[in-house]
Design a protein that fits this description.
Elements: H1 2-36, H2 41-56, E1 58-67, E2 72-78, E3 91-92, H3 97-104, E4 108-110, H4 121-127, E5 134-141, E6 144-154, H5 161-226, H6 232-257, H7 260-263, E7 271-274, H8 275-289, E8 297-300, E9 307-310, H9 312-328, E10 336-342, E11 348-355, H10 378-381, H11 389-399, E12 403-407, E13 415-424, H12 428-442
Helix pairs in contact: 1-2, 1-5, 2-5, 5-6, 8-9, 9-11
Length: 443
């Protein structure tokens, strides 16, 4: 009877142990879910320490992180009293307990820290805390050392193998979460730096373009005046000055328009426009900007005249820039064609500018749309410019829900620039007008 009673008690104790282990494992599963949802480092570390104190049934916990650049292990967080903030950033010697855990990547159990020569007692003195016992485990992620997780002062008894196993599980989960949080933090920092560089660049462009406008206007006015001089030599020099001033004005306009690369659709004034309207405006624009007799520009009106939802001014800017590029890289006797073609579906129209000029290296067909990118070939660099016209064009086209790309078989083969835009149904008033015209025609 006594033997049966003892077996029953042992069985009950075993059942209680198993229930306790199951509860701990369930906690660790829940912890994994929470850790993966926290991306800010400071609250993440606090949660890790709180969980460590709970499952280890100890007085305090600390997280130490490894700085690979400085080759230094330092306190990142601790639950030791209210003045633990003074610990943050404090480096730890590599011959300390935490340093040994990191170096050997192995768990260390210390039941009496006061007699252990590896214990870094200065920390206890600084924060008025006494470390009696310590359980520390390494935190690693994909063979990369992240840091050390410590549990301090077990409330009852000594550290056990089960304690080590549970803290190791928590440390493995924590390492993944910390690595993710640090990556997010680094990404945010890099993004902030890029935004600051972008802000400074935009400020410089705004100031430079503003300051250049006034003196440029004076130069252009005076050069235009000198073109009327009776002296042929003076006229020639004035024409060269005016030509250079016009190129500078184009650069300034590109600098001003650079903001459209970032602002995109928020600045668009969209309306239903026929493609033929764009081409008619383009024809007038070309005649106003250049000697039409010098270059052969063929603008082919579309057979079918679809509507697009577009900002007339911005699309004109894109098309005019493409034609200016074609002119810059083409000889006067080489024709330039502007045409509209049906897209792959009825909901798409393609506007093309085709030249027979210098052509483009196929490896640079995508790079030419990058901001400030300029082809390095000696044959084309002399045309000048900031190299932002195509990047502005791409931003505007994409803000319309379209695409723009370049095609070329290589140097000497000319180039084709294509804009693909979604088409829309004709406005109701145009449909009504068409119906009225048809009725009149029938009568």
């Amino acid at each position: 009877m006594v033997m049966v009673q003892m077996d029953a008690q042992a069985l009950q104790q075993r059942v209680q142990q198993l229930e306790s282990q199951v509860n701990l494992l369930e906690k660790l599963v829940d912890v994994s879910v929470v850790l993966n949802s926290r991306l800010q480092l400071e609250p993440l570390l606090k949660y890790i320490m709180d969980v460590a104190v709970d499952i280890m049934e100890c007085d305090a916990a600390s997280v130490l992180l490894w700085n690979n650049k400085k080759q230094q292990l330092f306190f990142a967080a601790s639950t030791t009293l209210d003045n633990s903030n003074s610990l943050i950033g404090t480096p730890v010697p590599m011959d300390s307990i935490a340093g040994e855990i990191l170096r050997k990547r192995d768990t260390v159990r210390v039941d009496d820290a006061r007699t252990d020569p590896r214990h870094y007692g200065k920390v206890d003195e600084d924060i008025a805390f006494q470390t009696r016992s310590l359980l520390g485990v390494p935190m690693t992620y994909k063979n990369k050392i992240i840091g050390v997780l410590e549990a301090l002062n077990k409330r009852q008894g000594s550290w056990t193998k089960e304690d080590s196993r549970y803290l190791e599980i928590l440390a493995a989960q924590a390492a993944v979460a910390i690595e993710g949080a640090q990556a997010v933090m680094e990404l945010r920092r890099a993004n902030e730096e890029l935004n600051e560089v972008d802000r400074l660049k935009n400020n410089f462009i705004a100031i430079a373009s503003h300051e250049l406008r006034t003196p440029l206007g004076v130069i252009m006015g005076y050069a235009s005046f000198l073109q009327e001089d009776e002296d042929v030599s003076t006229q020639s020099h004035a024409s060269k000055v005016l030509e250079s001033a016009l190129r500078l004005r184009k650069i300034i306009e590109d600098m001003v328009n650079l903001r459209y690369v970032k602002q995109k659709q928020s600045d668009l004034h969209l309306e239903a426009i026929r493609v033929s309207e764009l081409f008619s405006s383009l024809s007038l624009e070309i005649q106003a900007l250049m000697d039409i007799d010098k270059y052969q520009i063929n603008i082919k009106m579309p057979d079918k005249d679809p509507y697009v939802y577009a900002d007339h001014t911005r699309m004109m800017m894109v098309l005019t820039n493409l034609i200016n590029n074609a002119i810059s890289f083409s000889a006067p006797d080489k024709p330039i064609t502007v045409e509209a073609l049906k897209g792959l579906t009825d909901k798409e129209v393609r506007l093309r500018v085709v030249d027979q000029g210098l052509g483009i290296d196929p490896t640079q067909l995508e790079k030419i749309f990058e901001e400030f990118y300029q082809v390095e070939d000696h044959m084309v660099r002399h045309h000048g410019g900031l190299g932002i016209g195509l990047s502005i064009g791409r931003a505007i086209v994409e803000a319309h829900g379209g695409r723009i790309w370049a095609e070329s078989a290589g140097i000497g083969s000319g180039a084709t620039f294509t804009i693909s835009l979604p088409t829309i149904d004709p406005p109701q008033e145009d449909i009504n007008q068409a119906d009225t015209s048809q009725t009149i025609s029938e009568t």
